[in-house]
Structure to design on (231 residues):
């Protein structure tokens, strides 16, 4: 079984500051990793994903994440945030050996609040 | 850009009543999912659907729940007799059949409130 831990439930940050949202996972098998974002009153939108290859993954809106297998982490970073980045961020995993019809296992989410 | 849509955005119902949550997945997608998020808790997998049958379901998805793809475009989640603890945000998602992508595309959710 897999589990995902997002260590910070809320992250307040000032505009143009860097931010890191932390995600750790537990799994006995290899996993694919995802970050989704949910803006107020909207659905879940994929930010980025790691399937294989380079451990540094770049996504939309200037976000990137680094897969660290030894630390079982997939932290999300942005060097300079904007007010519009205020949203809920979810980390999710799925076992890579589960075939094409994989369910996602989710973290609790991190609420990013960007202040002027 | 194609998107997943869900209706209604908010549903209020009395305990014991049946509800049907509707989703229109992205056309030509083959895999369909329902997830839910109880307020303050994690997003939880409910069920996956492929080739007109359930592929996998969680322990939450008991006999009170059913899914259907009645007309090739809609994908519905029915709760036969709602309980207070069914109050949650329900998300529908769909995924293409391509082997090189694992992206599930989500709808905006339906907030179900059971009174």
């Amino acid at each position: 079984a897999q589990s995902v831990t997002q260590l910070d439930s809320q992250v307040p940050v000032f505009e143009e500051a860097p931010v890191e949202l932390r995600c750790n996972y537990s799994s006995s098998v290899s996993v694919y990793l995802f970050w989704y974002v949910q803006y107020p009153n909207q659905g879940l939108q994929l930010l980025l994903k790691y399937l294989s290859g380079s451990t540094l993954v770049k996504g939309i809106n200037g976000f990137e994440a680094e897969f660290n297998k030894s630390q079982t982490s997939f932290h999300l970073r942005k060097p300079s945030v904007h007010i519009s980045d205020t949203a809920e961020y979810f980390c999710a995993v799925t076992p890579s050996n589960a075939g094409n019809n994989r369910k996602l296992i989710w973290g609790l989410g991190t609420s990013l609040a960007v202040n002027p | 850009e194609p998107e997943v849509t869900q209706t209604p955005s908010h549903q209020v119902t009395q305990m014991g009543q049946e509800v049907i949550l509707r989703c229109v997945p992205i056309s030509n997608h083959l895999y369909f999912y329902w997830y839910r998020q109880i307020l303050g808790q994690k997003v939880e997998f409910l069920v996956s659907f492929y080739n007109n049958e359930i592929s996998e379901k969680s322990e939450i998805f008991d006999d009170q729940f059913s899914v259907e793809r009645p007309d090739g475009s809609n994908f519905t989640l029915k709760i036969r007799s709602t309980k207070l603890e069914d109050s949650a945000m329900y998300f529908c998602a769909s995924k293409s059949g391509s082997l090189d992508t694992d992206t599930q595309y989500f709808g905006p959710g339906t907030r179900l409130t059971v009174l």
The interface with chain A takes residues 3-4, 6, 31, 33, 35, 41-45, 48, 50, 55-56, 58, 91, 93, 97, 99, 102-109 of chain B (CB under 8 Å). The mean pLDDT of chain B is 92. The longest strand of chain B covers residues 43-50.
